[in-house]
């Protein structure tokens, strides 16, 4: 039965996990005047709070870190008021309010009086709802807050309560972080400091005013901590980097609720000299070590995959490129030869090479392919087709008709016609019970939906049923099972897709390992064609299954890929070797001469 995409509701995704959308945090450009281009650089970067240290000297307001470094052209008017007016005129400041934090460095009342006088000259600024001025440093006492114009608010640097009238004039609550912790921004806060800092933030936030720490460590780890801890304005000397990081923090942070029930392998047939009869090759497309790690950590620290003991590493470079694509990577697995990117089952000259399913079919094996991609996708097609470009879908579909496959399950029914030699199953139960010589099962008419978009547990169910179908033939078999959409998450830089597709892939792995435990002579090999996204996991929380991911690319990377193996023949898959060796090691395990 095809998955009905029209009936898949977005509510399904909410039962699987969610991206963390909670805080309203922003970058505060600390000592902004020290940037090469004050104000404009922070504004363009997306910082919504901008700080200027101001001195009153000879009735002029200057901006400088130290009074001795004052330059006559660097006035508050030149560096901030005139640029603010220009930004308003150009419509640059309209969607996101901007706060100007003015740190008074000279005598408070006289300096503030001059500031009020200068700002008052710009009626367009004082009339704007998108510009606010917050006075810090040598500010007046709270009792005097109300004596200043409404366009002036104050930076309150205490946790003592104020009167309701005084709170109305507070624009920001700020505290010195160093009074609560000496954390340098690496790793995490100590067990002593963490509760203190969280308590301070909670108390400050109870005043219902924006909150800022100053004197904080300045880097991604600290930005992430303070943002998720509830700090509204993150102090930084790197406004562009900080603003860019904070803008994408929510979309890179995923809280998972999908689970893979961890199965404990029995290890009954390791190193027992049992002949290998069946081979289950599982390929997690784009599933590098960080992708695996994200699924492990989001699944409470364990997967069925991580229960396995035998691990190797493969190098994935293709014949013509430092970084492989799925076509060349899968072709290396399927044929034993490296080829060019985009090539399917042909050598670099374009000549067809016998693939695993063809070779084993000649030896009396049943062969099968399962994928959460379309059946004409690069990885599955490498195990039955021979074409010079992965985009030649019509030609690849024709190769499917003449292939040696006994069974396949995939999306993309609309791309295949004339497949009269395959019976089509309507559901997974029918797969397990079928007596057909050749069987097909379609997940969807076109692309297969992601787990986050309602695919359900169909991959693991199909794997379980297909293994029963193949077992019923009373012949040895080879099956390739692809978790295709881990790769999609990498290309889209989507953490939730990577995590949930990885966990779903592990549910398929579980079915394979359980089958191997019940059927002596079954070798299970689990790997990936390449890593996608340059994915890393800088932060997260195992208690809440929360993962923050980061990316260096929207394409593949050339990092080494792990190979897990289980059952008889696993000794062949240890070590570090080229990806095309997977093919040769499988045949070696089956004791089939090439």
Automatic annotation (TrEMBL):
Cofactor binding note: Binds 1 Mg(2+) ion. Binds 2 Zn(2+) ions.
Annotated binding of Zn(2+), by residue: 285, 487, 491, 529-530
Binding site for Mg(2+): 285, 379, 482
First and last residue of the signal peptide: 1-22
Database matches in Gene3D superfamilies: Alkaline Phosphatase, subunit A, Phosphatidylinositol (PI) phosphodiesterase
GO MF annotation list: alkaline phosphatase activity; metal ion binding; phosphoric diester hydrolase activity
Entry-linked InterPro entries: AIM6_PI-PLC-like_dom, Alkaline_phosphatase, Alkaline_phosphatase_core_sf, PLC-like_Pdiesterase_TIM-brl
CDD domains, per database record: ALP (cd16012), PI-PLCc_GDPD_SF_unchar3 (cd08577)
Family annotation (SUPFAM superfamilies): Alkaline phosphatase-like (SSF53649), PLC-like phosphodiesterases (SSF51695)
Active site per the UniProt annotation: 326
GO BP annotation list: lipid metabolic process
Cofactor: Mg(2+); Zn(2+)
Keyword annotations of the record: Magnesium, Metal-binding, Phosphoprotein, Signal, Zinc
Pfam families registered for this protein in UniProt: Alk_phosphatase
Family, per entry: Belongs to the alkaline phosphatase family.
Protein name, per record: Alkaline phosphatase
């Amino acid at each position: 039965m095809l998955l009905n995409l029209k009936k898949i509701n977005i509510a399904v995704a909410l039962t699987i996990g969610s991206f963390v959308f909670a805080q309203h945090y922003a970058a505060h450009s600390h000592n902004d005047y020290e940037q090469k281009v004050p104000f404009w650089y922070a504004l363009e970067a997306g910082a919504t709070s901008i700080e200027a240290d101001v001195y009153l000297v000879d009735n002029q307001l200057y901006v400088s870190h130290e009074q001795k470094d004052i330059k006559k052209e660097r006035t508050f008017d030149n560096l901030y008021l005139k640029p603010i007016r220009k930004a308003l005129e150009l419509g640059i400041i309209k969607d996101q309010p901007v706060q100007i934090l003015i740190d008074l460095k000279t005598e408070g009342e006289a300096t503030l009086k001059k500031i009020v006088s200068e700002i008052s000259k710009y009626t367009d600024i004082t009339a704007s709802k998108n510009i606010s001025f917050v006075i810090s440093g040598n500010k007046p006492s709270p009792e005097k807050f109300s004596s200043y114009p409404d366009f002036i608010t104050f930076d309150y640097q205490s946790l003592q309560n104020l009167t309701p009238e005084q709170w109305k004039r507070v624009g920001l609550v700020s505290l010195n972080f160093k009074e609560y912790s000496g954390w340098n921004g690496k790793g995490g806060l100590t067990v002593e400091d963490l509760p203190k800092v969280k308590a301070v933030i909670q108390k400050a936030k109870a005043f219902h005013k924006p909150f800022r720490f100053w004197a904080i460590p300045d880097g991604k780890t600290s930005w992430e901590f303070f943002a998720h801890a509830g700090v509204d304005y993150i102090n930084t000397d790197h406004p562009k980097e900080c603003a860019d990081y904070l803008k994408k923090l929510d979309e890179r942070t995923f809280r998972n609720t999908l689970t893979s029930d961890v199965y404990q392998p029995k290890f009954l047939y390791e190193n027992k000299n049992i002949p290998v009869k069946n081979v289950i090759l599982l390929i997690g497309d784009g599933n590098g070590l960080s992708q695996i790690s994200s699924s492990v950590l989001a699944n409470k620290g364990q997967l069925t995959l991580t229960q396995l003991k035998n691990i190797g590493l493969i190098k994935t470079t293709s014949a013509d490129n430092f970084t492989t694509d799925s076509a060349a990577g899968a072709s290396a697995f399927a044929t034993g030869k490296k080829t060019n990117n985009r090539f399917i089952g042909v050598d670099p000259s374009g000549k067809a090479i016998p693939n695993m399913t063809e070779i084993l079919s000649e030896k009396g094996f049943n062969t099968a392919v399962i994928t959460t991609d379309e059946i004409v996708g690069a990885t599955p097609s490498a195990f039955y087709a021979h074409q010079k470009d992965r985009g030649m879908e019509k030609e690849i579909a024709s190769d499917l008709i003449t292939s040696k496959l006994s069974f396949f399950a995939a999306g993309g029914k609309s791309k295949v016609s004339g497949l009269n030699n395959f019976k089509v199953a309507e559901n997974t139960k029918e797969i397990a019970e079928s007596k057909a010589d050749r069987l097909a099962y379609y997940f969807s008419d076109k692309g297969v939906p992601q787990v986050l978009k309602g695919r359900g547990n169909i991959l693991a169910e199909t794997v379980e049923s297909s293994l029963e179908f193949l077992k019923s033939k009373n012949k040895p078999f080879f099956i390739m099972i692809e978790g295709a959409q881990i790769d999609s998450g990498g290309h889209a830089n989507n953490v939730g897709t990577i995590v949930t597709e990885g966990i779903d892939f592990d549910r398929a792995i579980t079915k394979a390992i359980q089958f191997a435990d019940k059927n002596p002579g079954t070798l299970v090999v689990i790997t990936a064609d390449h890593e996608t996204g340059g994915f890393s996991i800088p932060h997260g929380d195992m208690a809440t299954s929360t993962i923050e991911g980061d990316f260096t690319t929207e394409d593949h990377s050339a990092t080494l890929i792990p190979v897990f193996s289980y059952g008889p023949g696993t000794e062949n898959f240890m070590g570090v070797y080229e990806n095309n060796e997977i093919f040769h090691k499988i045949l070696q395990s089956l004791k089939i001469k090439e």
